[in-house]
Specification:
Layout lengths: L2 H13 L3 H18 L7 E3 L11 H9 L3 E7 L7 E5 L6 E3 L5 E3 L14 E5 L2 E2 L5 E2 L5 H10 L7 E5 L20 E3 L4 E3 L1
Length: about 190
Amino acid sequence: MTRDALRRKLQQTRAQLCEASRKQAAEAVAARVKQRLDLNHGGIAAIFKSFAAELDTTPTINALWQQGITTVLPVLHPFSKGHLLFLRYNPHTTMIKNRYGIAEPALDCQNIVPLAQIDWLFMPLVGFDRQGNRLGMGGGYYDRTLARWRDGLLTQLSPIGLAYDQQEVESIPVESWDVPIPEVITPTKHWRF
C-alpha cells in the first residue's frame, strides 16, 4: 500500500471512532504521559493542539500545566517554509488559525522557545509501526524538526508520538527523509523502539 493510501485509510479509521471512545482515549493517554514524565523536575514540553480527528491533547496539556511543566505549541515558521517554531502556550494565549486551519499561538518573538531548550516533543501521528516509523500528514514538518535530533545535536530532546491504538500498523513505507521516533504513547500501551 502506498503512503498516501495508508494515510487515507488510517485517517478514515481515526475519524470513525465515537466521541466516547475519543474522550476515554484522550484521558488514558494523559495518564500515560504523566507516568512517562518526571513531572516533579519541571521542564518544557512541546505538544500539538488537536485538529480534526487527532487524539485530543487537552487532557494531556492540562496535566502538564498542573505539574508546572512549561508548554509550547508548534507554529508554522513565517520565513522558513516547511519548518516549525515553538511558542509558549497557556490558557490566556491568543490563538489564530494557520493556513491549514490549525490553531496556533499568534506569533510573538518574545514567546519563542528554541528547540534546544525543549525536553519532550509530543507529536501527532496518522500511523506508526513497531520499528518507530511514523506516518504524518505529509508536510514533513516534524521530520525537518527532528533532523538535528537524529544527527545527535539535540541530546536533551525526547520525541514521543501520541496516537490511538488503532493507528498502529504492521509496516510504514519509509522514505529517506523520514526520522523514526523512539516512543509512542497510546491509550493502552507505551511503545519504546
